[in-house]
Design goal:
Largest sheet: none
Number of domains: 1
Number of strands: 0
Radius of gyration: 21 Å
Structural class: mainly alpha
Shape: globular
Strand content: under 5%
Helix content: over 70%
Length: about 300
Amino acid sequence: MSADPGLFAHGLALAAMAAAIAYWWAAGRLLRRGDAWPRWRTISFTAGSAGVAWIAVSPLPGDPFTAHMMEHLILGMAAPLLLVLARPFTLTLRVLPPGAARRSLLTLMHSRPAAWLVFPPAAALLDLGGLWLLYRTELFAAVQDHPLGHAVMHGHVLAAGLLFTFSVCQLDPVRHRRNLPLRGATLLAAGAAHAVLAKTLYATPPPGTAFTTADVQTGAQIMYYGGDVVEAALAVVLAASWYQAAARTRQRRHRTYSPRTASTRTPVRSTRRTRLAHYRDLGTRDCGASGDQGCA
């Protein structure tokens, strides 16, 4: 069950290619003006965009349900992780000059609706809830032979995967950066729900479908073990974020309580005010030169 290469599929592939070209241009502009931007992020975004374009127009080999699960794994889990790791919003903010466009993007990212959308439990509910609705009802059987329904399903899988990955990692600047325990607990709960769904599919195919038992069981195994790999990678990102945050906290404490600066120390502003001030100045400062401190 692979995507019909119709108008939506080709449009999605072209959008992914255009996004990759725009990312290359923005990263190149930073490098040309002497700012730092890790090349591995450009490679990550390129790989994620290529995965989306490939799934959109190229049918995968194998039995129908097995091929569909490979599409689900790439489009809904692997590609979103690669795209989010590239920090596209941070790159956009650094490339845009101070002005209306940059202020509008910051306003959108710091808006209340955006804050709710990237609230980790809400994003997990949209992502995993949609998968349970798709595979444990007759919805999957209803859309598999309809190109438009199939296109909508693929669009939802990609959008929900991006939203969930963004909410868990929170590498780009957002209005409310959720704490690590909440994000970690959400990842564990989502991983458990994903694994249980794969086990139910191994035992019982989606209602209304006529896939062979071997096809369904192979697809369920791909969903189970492939999901574990991507979720482990997300856990590594969370652990790295915790380590970097702890290191920055130690550095701030060392600077604050250093004997040389104790007599001239000025009162430290609250963490939230300092972060908001940084976001207002983002783009005029070189975040990448110091390991993206404050942008992570």
